[in-house]
## 1
Amino acid sequence: MSLAALARQMHEAGTPIEGILLALEAVEERDAEAAAKRAKAAARKQAQRDRERDSHATVTGQSEDRLPSLDKSPQTPKINPTPLVHTHETRARAVAWPCPEGVDPRHWQDFLAVRKRKRMVSTQTALDGVLSDIAALSNDEWPPGRLVQLAAAKSWGSINKPDGYQNGRTTGISMGGNRGSASGHGSTVDAANRALARHGFAVG
């Protein structure tokens, strides 16, 4: 309500002029105190904003009154760190191993399954080595298909020289010219070679 409206109401109510003046003075004093409080609150809020802005500028190095650095030495150029090499570039790349000519696809898949179980790599270099072994060891008695079949049956991870095997059985002929034992398991050397072959090491 405005002061004029308040004075009018008091006059219509029969309030003496002195009472009306006192009431108006009281209202003006109250409004002045309220305005002063609002001004003080606004000043405090603005001061707080200024402090926060100055503090942020100091931390980030954007303050206008920041002292210049006394270090006049030239800046050390930034050196880019060694770029990370992608894993697929550092690991040997696996390739598909097609079944060689003259080899039963089932025996070839069994042979590859053995290599996978032994966690042997399937790179192009490894494939070239297996194909080279097949070509070097194959003959009329041991064609490529029979060599791969023997490797798969013996759980070999590589193609090994089939010494001591004839028609899928051990003949008892050992390496070094030693005669195998009567039990047909071959000499100690043969047993060691078979153990190495089961773990994917080429012997012979």
Note: Confidence is low (pLDDT under 50) at residues 167-188.
## 2
Amino acid sequence: MRFLDALRASAIAAAGLLLASAFCAAGPAAASDTSAKDERPAAPAVVTLPGAAPASDAPSSAPKRPGDEKAGAPPADAGAVDIALVLPLGAPDYARAAEAVRDGFLAAAGIAKATGRCRVIPHGDEGVLGAFEAAKLSGARVVVGPLVRDDLRALAASTEPLPLTLALNQLDDASALPPQVYTLSLSVESDAPTLARRMRDAGVSTVALIGNESPISKRFAAAFGAEWLLAGGGPIESIPFDTRPERLTALRNALSKSTADAALLALDAQDAAVARSFVLRIPAYAISLINQPHAPSVLRDLESVRFVDVPWLVTPSDRALAGIPRREAGNLLLDRLYALGFDAFAVASAFVKGVPERLDIAGATGRLTLADGRQVAREGVLAVFRRGQVVPADAAR
């Protein structure tokens, strides 16, 4: 799913979002505790991994979890492995997030009757390279992971040859990843293309982007700026946000003079609600960090604010998501990560016989396609706060 910057400030022990944006974070994160039970059925028999058909077309069945092996050589009777899932299940700060991804991945594998061709390889802090070595020894054709941004940095810096890899994060700088590494991320900046396109479709030509000095805000602002230019948008007016009274006065003055068609709030939920109270005469858009439980007073401030989020949360009754087992974690960040794990299996399945020329999957985190830079682009759903509820913007009246 402040996906790990956000895992740190949100509540995975009181943690922050990213994977959005978050796992995206370099610092540790934890997930708020849930009452969900962790039941593990016995590992299923080996079956042939199906092709890359959309997961929604597969028959429904209960998710199964093969035993989480310790990093190292696979057991002699492990059988053929098509996909290895490498996750920090042994890292205290990331274990809850990793469990959510694992559960989503294995739910998808269970639907496809392919759990016997998958292997979960856990690792602890600083153990990602050993886990990848174990994945190679297993003969996996595709490795899914790492989940944490620092682990992805370690993998990128390694000189060891890598198998075809689907990383569940992305780097926060211009560093190049090895050529065999593709990315599928829940980072907030990955929603920038969808937001830019939808804002242009709504007739917005100039934007007042309200942000602060947080890493997430800066990353999103940079990503949106690039996409906005590609979408044919006009100048972006950057307005700093700060909760100090004198800075809020400056914000009010700047907005009173602004000629922007819309405001974009590159802020977390609480700050976005404050900033929104100063933005009343023009439409307001925001990043997905605003979608979390709120007090009624905050919801009133966020009324009519639009943002992009995953279909798993915005359109749960959509036909493409029918039959997918639900994991009620009571935590929206963990719910996003469960959806990420589900989609990671679908993409990895499409990669088993090599990188496909074309990818088009109606996933739980959005429509997934191959984009430049070895990225799996993710087009989420435009949502809006309406009378205290999150509803699809296209259906809101």
Note: Residues 38 and 241 are 42 Å apart (CA to CA).
## 3
Amino acid sequence: MLRLTFVLSLLSAITSHGNAVSDCVKPAKMNVYFLSGLGADKRVFSKLNLDDRFEVHYIDWIPPKKKEALHEYAARLTAQMDTTKPFQLVGLSFGGIIASELSEIARPEQIILISSTPTNIPISKFNRGLIKFLLFSPLAAPILKSANSFTYKYFGADTPELKTLLKQILHDTDSKFLKWALTRMSEWNHPDKVENLYHIHGSADRLIPLKIVKPDNVIEGGGHLMVYAQHEDISRILNEQLARKLK
């Protein structure tokens, strides 16, 4: 009888210990890498509220090499990522273009674009040459980096808070990086969407008008900076869409 009691007590202790261990083991979070717009950083994502099921990382822009192609640049950004585990990408504006390039290198579970384009926007040879000419003008950087009524309008910065944010971002943008990125964007040849892509766009986006893209989800009244201005809507959609790839 004593032996039986001892065995039962031992089994109970082992079971309790096993349950305690299992309770302590939490499922691993899925990595989600965010790529911001031209010259911007994680400030534009600061108001997003994502579920704790995701481990959020922000990719930093690095100086481009001379005459470096977008695909080559994207390949160097993988040094900031753990591609040995399942992950997802979220790309804003220019970051969405880089995300599409990264998908052919690192194979994410999903790409989510915000205020971006999944394919190249056709530009005539004349306009492409005009863009290059204007970008190499000494006045290009001061004009592109200036915060005024024109830039406020096209970025959808219609509140004091958004205007302050945009002004700070433009001020901190590296002129060489800006010129390189705009030139590469005008040359981008990507006629087809990549696999596992979900696109969120604003109906009032003036930089990338809704009529030239075909998004999966349209935010009514959303401008180019809706990731900040309408962060509650974007957070909800991101949480729902990112969760579809959890295993």
Note: DSSP finds ten helices and six strands in the chain.
## 4
Amino acid sequence: MRTTARLGTLAATGCVLLFATSSALAFGGSAGDLGQQGNFVISNRANLGFSQSFHGGGPTFDVAPELDYFLAPKLAIGGALILHHDDGGSSFGVQPQAAYNVVLSASWSFWPRLAVTLTAGAPGDVSVELSAPFLIHPVQHFFFGFGPALTTDVTPPRGGHVFDALGSAFLIGGYFDS
């Protein structure tokens, strides 16, 4: 009786594993399609963080709708509109950028991006950002990702300090075939 119960449990476990494996293989599979030449990518980065400095700090929030175009296979150029809010107020900016899609598997890719942010205000700010999110492609034409981001201010320092921030960014978007 114990042997029959064990064989039944083993058979049930095997069926579950077979079903799970076939379902996992059906997941995504479009990571390589993102970076095809001529594709347009619409995405949005949303950053929620907390900053602390000698001059104050507090919660920060960024929203950045983006549009990118693949000039060549895997190489995209584009830009974003930036809305930033912190305890000092809100600011608006534009962000030209270049990115590269590195396919890691059928469902995963790596999207390193270099951007220059030009923020309006008096005086305006110029900063450089390098981000490196890992993207998951659960279905064709859709992705989301998360990864580190490093930002440094390149405008002349005010009050003797230069702003450097290490944070993370969440990215969600989709793309249109050429």
Note: Residues 1-26 have pLDDT under 50 and may be disordered.
